Amino acid sequence: MEKVQSLLTRASHHPSHVRCSINRHRGGRESRDEEGDGDGDGDRTTRVEVNFFQPGSEEDLEPGPTNDITSLVLHLPREHKKVVLYLSLISLLIFTTAFLLGYVAFRGSCHHCGDLDGELVPVDDTAGSEHTPTGGVAYLGELRDMLRKYLKEEKIESTVRRVSRATHPPGSMEGNELASEILHNFRRLRMDHTWTDSHYATLQFPSRSQRNFLWIVDGQGEVLEDISPESPLDYCAYSGTGTATGGVVYVNYGRKEDFDLLVSRGLPLEGALAVARIGGGVSFAEKVWHAQQAGLGGVLIYPDPADVPQDPRRLGLFHNASISEHVHLGSGDPFTPGFPSFNHTQFPPTQSSGLPLIPAQPISANIASKILSQVTGTDCPRAWHGRLPYVRCALGLGFSVPKGRRVKMGVYNSMTPVLLNNIFASIEGKIEPDHYIIMGAQRDSWDPGAAKAGVGTALLLELARTFSSMVDNGFYPRRSLLFVSWDAGDFGNVGATEWLEGYLSMLNALHLSEKPVLQSASPCVRVKPLYLNSGAYSFTAFGGVPAMELRFSEERRPYPFVNTQLDTAQRLQEMLQGRLGALGRSVAELVGLMVLRLAHDHILALDVTCYSGSVLHFSSQLKKYSDELQARGLSPQWVFSARGDYNRAAETLREAILNSDIQDERLTRLYNTRIMRVEYYFLSQYVSTVETPFRHVLHGRGDHTVGALTEHLSLLRSNSSRFDEARFRRQLALLTWTLQGAANALSGDVWNIDNTF
Description:
This protein is α+β, with helices and mostly antiparallel strands.
């Protein structure tokens, strides 16, 4: 009998993406359109990114396997095992925004916390009650039953088909029609408010006058063979433009360690063209960035059969199909970094440092095979071998015969200003209306986007309809629920990021970001750090808000059609064996149950001591280099002191909450306010949001982060001549005071802060 193991991943303050596995042996302007009358169900369309906060109650624990959410998964029919792979397409992004609530951090006393990817942590499922304005009490179990009663599967498939009937990129006629339909559907529901939030962003599209090309040329530059991609729609948004010609270097996944290996072997990379395969835990943007840093002149990215199924007879990718993805090393509009893209604002000429200068182009496995089969040079490491036919894995740079042949690529994508529209609907909370649980989903897609945009949109609208029906029947959420259809997700989550940039200062001023844990709200899940291309990443790394991306996949086998013209409703339904509606409802129920907990509990269920483990790990790294640091007159004493202050403040707050009356609304709000500031204070206040938007010292990117400091520290032994003492002192000081600020925030009143050195 199939057994599904329900586990919640590491609940440290590590924002993350969550993978729920089922194995065989384990189980801007803001233009507001106020609400219309809610009188019907309406259609549903979107992919789901669920921003959410979560509180957790310690009362009425229900024992082990009777966990309601666990039961939801345990009782899935045998054929539903395929939900894993296929609903990884669904990409239910679960993240908390800066005025919402949501930390992914369950851990009890934190002994369950860890830094290993995929760590599993058991989750409880506590019971609680909901007070209604009429004085009655709705228990959490009754709310669960109500949720299950009103969730329907009928429209999920039809919505997916509607969303994916044609490509619908931002600003297109099809995209605008879809946005209007979603707004209309929201207005038909019992929502307190519906509105749109508009931004003007610069997006990059293929040129209408000049196609991108890829040629094999001789020593004089004459074209020997045109191997250009078949479709002009295969492109990398935000690629550098122009031409590049050079020898070919195979760079495996294009990770930093891959380029380090090539450099260690003495390959002359300057000006060469990199051929990288998809995967390896890095995005297209990171592959291109690493190539540019190594001095290469361009990048070609292909799906290798070893990583992406490519047998059309078994619903795999065609060998002549390419996979597209943007290559901006960041999120949001790259021409207004750190600023919201409101039309009435006059911005100085600036652009994101994450925009690549070199061209990048997706290619098919066939094209990659044609190139790499002619490449000569040193044999690849065994771990670099893929499954391209007729290819002897060589690093490059030369071609077989005749000598002097090279590859020439040309990219002519063009920048275009586009009006983006995020669509909002809300149900006001009755006790804490200024705290929000946000459920969002990407709407746009430069391909049909059945899995990428269709499923999420369908689930978002079904959840909106369900919670609206629950309100009609007596449900009053403690906190406000927001349902959001985001625009321009394919270009680096532009719509969501611009909205966050536009309202972050207001949100901080209102202290609306409560950050609870995903404690008992979820079944068994695996938690891994958020990756750069995740829709949730900017909420944490830029906005200081906990974030999660929830994915479902089968035995780690990827769905091959995402970001291709083959991502259609028909193929999705075939892979799900006709169970799209039923599986979609199961996922919607899972998310809905999580949201119920997030909207229900009094105290935000966040164990603030969990970040102590991350800082302790870094402290241990510093201790390893104590001799080298002392020899240079450097001391990590102040970091250790700040870590101690944070540990004491976190433990004191935890004990105070455990010994308090959670029915005291004033006290509860005070505690939640202190909890919610923690993530925000892990944003470095000493770097510019324009130059360094991802300011989070643990999850961000830049010289201020723990990762950058650790990497710099390692130079003391690996290459001491490159160690910059002045830079290190600055890094250490910024980290120390960021950590001290988080400790001070947890301490609460200024007279409780012990800041004596």
